[in-house]
Amino acid sequence: MKKRSIFLNLFLSFILFSCSNPSQQTNEITEEKQAVQTRNDLPNMLITTLDNARVNIRLIKGNTILILFQPDCDHCQREAKEIREYVDSFKDYNLYFISADQMPAIEKFAKDYGLLGYANIYFGTTTVDNVLNNFGSIPAPSVYIYSNQQLQQKFNGEVAIEKILQAI
């Protein structure tokens, strides 16, 4: 009787496992995971802000504009002046001015162009390697516009403020 019971259990287990389609179950699980994950185009890049906070750009939520610049770049300076003139147009965005330069030069740039003191404008430094690994070799300034972590538009090199405003 025990042998018959063991045999019957083994036989039923075999039928049960052979009738289920593991590849279909795997596909369903994979599709569910993909539905939960959302696209995030923001670079996985750490910056240090003027107040010495460490920020991972990839974790920023909402509308974001990354402006990669060099404080001594005349194109960057003109673009900063234009952004300051139209600062109210950027109220729905967080602007991150990022440079591989030293913090004193970045802070002087922020002060000189009247961009300190805004709740949605941040200045930070990162390494040249971080920039190259995340964006490749790009000219300064370069502007990357994200909406809900998805890249909407990028401008490499100096661009007229009207084009940036159209993109937001």
Write structural notes for this entry.
The protein has 168 residues and is α/β, with parallel strands linked by helices. The protein contains 6 helices and 7 strands; from the N terminus they run H-H-E-E-E-H-E-H-E-H-E-E-H. It folds into 2 domains: 35 residues, no CATH class; 122 residues, Glutaredoxin. Strands 2-1-5-4-3-6-7 form a 7-stranded mixed β-sheet, with helices on one face.
Strand order of the biggest β-sheet: 2-1-5-4-3-6-7
The CATH homologous superfamily of the largest domain is called: Glutaredoxin
The string of secondary-structure elements, in order, is: HHEEEHEHEHEEH
Radius of gyration: 26 Å
Look up the CATH topology of the largest domain. Answer: Glutaredoxin
**Averaging pLDDT over every residue, what do you get?**
84
Fraction of residues in H or I helices: 40-55%
Give the biggest sheet: 7 strands, mixed
Extended strand count: 7
Structural class by secondary-structure content:
alpha/beta
Using the alpha-carbon principal axes, give the shape. globular
Percent of residues in beta strands? 15-25%
Q: Total helix count? A: 6
Total number of distinct structural domains: 2
CATH architecture of the largest domain: 3-Layer(aba) Sandwich
- CATH uppermost class of the largest domain: Alpha Beta
Ends apart, CA distance between termini: 77 Å
Uncertain segments are 7-26
